[in-house]
Amino acid sequence: MSFTIELLAQLQHIGETLPLPRVRALHLPPDPRPGEERGEFCAVELVDGSIGLSYVLLGDTLPALRARSGAGLPGAGALEVAAGFAADDAALRTIGFAAANAVTRFLFDRAGFVPASSADSVGALGLLPGDRVGMIGFFAPLLPRVRASGAELVVVELRAELLDRADGFRVTLDADELRGCSKVLATGTLLLNGTLDAMLERCTAASRVAIVGPSVGCVPDALFARGITFVGGTWIDDRSGFVDALRAGERRADVAHKFGLRREDYTGLDALLARVLG
Q1: Of 12, 18, 2, which is closest to residue 272 (Cα–Cα)?
Q2: For the residues of 67-118, what is the DSSP string, one character each?
Q3: Fewer CB within 10 Å: C terminus or N terminus of the chain?
Q4: How far apart are CA 171 and CA 183, in angstroms?
Q5: Domains of the chain (ranges plus CATH)?
Q6: What is the structure's pLDDT at 265?
Q7: 249 exposed, middle or buried (CB, 10 Å; 0-12, 13-18, 19+)?
Q8: Order of all β-strands in the sheet with 256-262
Q9: Are strands 230-236 and 256-262 parallel, antiparallel or unpaired?
Q10: Across the beta sheet with 51-55, what order do the strands follow?
Q11: pLDDT tier at 141, thresholds 50, 70, 90
């Protein structure tokens, strides 16, 4: 069973156990300025205030979302929207994944589950000199920490234009190079572009695998079951402030913080549902 299908099945289980709030709105960021390299995310907000994020800069996803203007989303069922995560259409997948993340936040809040704060996702890998680290997706903000550890770094990319970005590390289009990596760090983009399962099949030699990014906010059971040992995402502290900042393209550090969840610290979906039902 693919990650996508397994995640949707888990969301369905949540919906069969708890009444879920409907969708309030889709919030979009402004277009990036020419030459600007920054990650941008949309947000699906449920009527209770739960918010889920999803990356929008894959291909023409953001223009496609803007053309839709959130049509048909207000008042729609959360699971109905989340089902779009299985669609071939990139915009539907993006919205669907954001809805899946919003449902997860709803569950976490109802269960009183708050993952620990984490200012250093790289630290979860326990990098040591001599480690061979595979980074799936070019994630520039994390490069200094990896290189400072003394570990060898190989970046696996899908975009050939990034091959000349290497400075003290290597960039390759050959995903099979992950087979020789002792630690692996992946960005949340893998969850959207459908490559997660294929990449993880190459990471069997890795003792630790982390997946991080603002859009990593879904129920983590299917990720942990696939050998991922750490997930890191964004925890929204101030709903209205976050929405205002996202729509204005402003920094969101004052209204959200990074969280990190280790596999051994997670009780599991059924335990969370049992906690809600009390």
Answers
A1: 18
A2: HHTTTT-TT--HHHHHGGGGSSSHHHHHHHHHHHHHHHHHHHHHHT--PEE-
A3: C
A4: 16
A5: 3-115+238-253 (3.30.390.100), 122-212 (3.40.50.11590)
A6: 94
A7: middle
A8: 116-117, 256-262, 230-236, 208-212, 183-187, 132-136, 152-156, 170-172
A9: antiparallel
A10: 23-27, 41-46, 51-55
A11: confident
Burial of 198 (0-12, 13-18, 19+ CB in 10 A): exposed
Tokens representing 239?
Answer: 């709903």
Q: What is the pLDDT of residues 72-99, one digit of tens each?
A: 899 999 999 999 999 999 999 999 999 9
CB 168 within 8 A of CB 147: yes
The per-residue pLDDT for range 211-235, each reduced to its tens digit, is: 999 999 999 999 999 999 999 999 9
Amino acid 173 reads: L
What would the pLDDT profile of 230-276 be if each residue is shown by its tens digit? 999 999 999 999 999 999 988 888 999 999 999 999 999 999 999 99
How far from 139 is each of 4, 64, 79, CA to CA, in Å? 23, 24, 31
Q: In Å, what is the CA distance from 98 to each residue of 41, 94, 226?
A: 9, 6, 21
